[in-house]
Specification:
heterodimer, A: mainly alpha, 3-stranded antiparallel sheet, 5 helices, 72% helix, B: alpha+beta, two-stranded antiparallel sheet, 9 strands, 40% strand, disordered C terminus
Chain lengths: 119, 156
């Protein structure tokens, strides 16, 4: 079950990590983490022509990291929670692995240390 | 050399260990000691090779539920500064030969602390899909944690 889950996610993860490898796109995701925003608000901090900025938005949307919708003449962007969850799950799994490893090292060493002190 | 921290791919673990630096170093570099903490019980760990020098093999094996030992970590050391730093990677195997499944480079640093040893692990992952295959059990953990948290990480 885990394996099929992973197979489904691998392709998405590839795209997500590629999308997050760019500083502009990371900044956009970071900004949207605080709440939805319009394209023009998002583009404002960047010294970039709108068509170039739209390419970044398009890639983020295709990857599934954000979604956009039009309200009147304004296109709004918002974070797509499932996309972020896929990344977070992977990274938190690796974190759990290394935290556990460090816990065990710490326990192992302090146990030996106490033995040494006692003898 | 201190590589940049990439929040999308890296982990940083820091801990104060209440024991002398020499003991922490020994726990990392003595195969009999590493076997006792590297893999969580009840699985068993066997160190197939541990040659703490640049290009030296670092190979551990795992046995779960009494099954025969299977490959776990297969890599090599990139830098070893006695008592203070270990850098290993699975992008290369013994003798710097390119590995089939590059996955991780880890920088372990030990420094003196008034309470014992300041232990730090900077773990850098490959940007690619195969990383999800690394730890199946671990992958199942941690579903559904807060989204805002990642947004903060990504923003940084």
């Amino acid at each position: 079950m885990i394996l099929s889950l992973m197979a489904n996610q691998i392709q998405q993860l590839d795209g997500i990590f590629q999308a997050l490898s760019d500083p502009t796109r990371r900044a956009v995701v970071g900004r949207l983490g605080k709440g939805p925003a319009s394209i023009s608000d998002l583009a404002q901090p960047f010294d970039m022509a709108l068509p170039s900025f739209m390419k970044h938005i398009g890639l983020l949307e295709t990857t599934g990291l954000i979604r956009t919708h039009k309200t009147g003449r304004v296109r709004m962007c918002a974070i797509e929670k499932n996309g972020l969850r896929a990344v977070e799950t992977w990274l938190s799994a690796q974190r759990a692995l290394w935290e556990g490893r460090t816990d065990r090292l710490e326990q192992f060493v302090t146990k030996r240390q106490r033995k040494d002190t006692a003898s | 050399m201190n590589p940049q921290f990439d929040p999308a791919l890296d982990l940083s673990i820091k801990r104060i260990i209440k024991a002398p630096r020499a003991m922490v170093w020994e726990a990392w570099t003595d195969p009999r000691q590493l076997e006792q903490w590297w893999i969580p019980a009840p699985a068993k760990c066997r160190v197939a090779a541990l040659d703490p020098m640049p290009g030296g093999a670092f190979e551990t094996q795992i046995s779960e539920g009494g099954a025969p030992f299977a490959p776990h970590v297969d890599g090599c050391f990139l830098a070893v500064d006695a008592g203070s730093r270990i850098v290993f990677t699975t992008a290369l195997v013994a003798g710097w030969r390119p590995a089939t499944n590059p996955f991780v480079t880890a920088i372990i640093t030990l420094t003196d602390d008034p309470d014992g040893t300041a232990y730090a692990a900077h773990v850098m992952h490959k940007n690619g899909a195969d990383r999800t295959m690394h730890d199946e059990a671990g992958f199942a953990a941690g579903w559904g944690t807060a989204i805002a948290q990642l947004a903060n990480i990504v923003e940084g």
